[in-house]
Amino acid sequence: MLEGISAIAAFIGKSPNTVVSWILNDGLPATKTRQGRWLSHKGLILQWIYAGHQAEVRHRAGFAVEPETIDALAERMGVSAEEVRSMREAIYDSDHKEGKKYRKERS
Question: Can you say whether the dihedral through the CA atoms of 73, 45, 43, 12 is positive or negative?
Fold first, then answer.
């Protein structure tokens, strides 16, 4: 459980102002208590980030991702690089079946 905008911002690595903006405008999952304090869960935030990254990957389908970028993203999100690669492959497989074209990952 993350309690307060500062804790959420520290977890995501963004400013408190950005976090509030994302909560109010972009659907970052958080609940405001009666006392005015924001609460969220790490798992919900990671799911929200993953969903956004999936949309971004689809949006930038023509751009290959450097392996170092995947490693850095995984480290920042506190998950294994293999998990990020697996998710990326699932997106690729899904979109490939729909006829979308991608460049191969750089080695």
Answer: positive
Burial of residue 55, with CB atoms counted within 10 A of its CB: 0-12 exposed, 13-18 middle, 19 or more buried: exposed
Helices 42-59, 5-12: axis angle to 10 degrees equals 50
For the chain, the domains span 1-40, 44-107
Of 27, 57, 69, 60, residue with least CA distance to 44: 27
Q: CB under 8 Å to 82, separation ≥6 — which residues?
A: none
Give the SS3 label for residue 45: helix
Structure tokens at 95: 């979109």
Q: What is the DSSP letter of 61?
A: T
Tens digit of pLDDT at every position of the chain (107 positions): 999 999 999 988 889 998 998 889 888 889 999 999 999 998 888 888 877 765 655 555 444 556 677 777 777 777 777 877 777 677 666 655 655 554 444 44
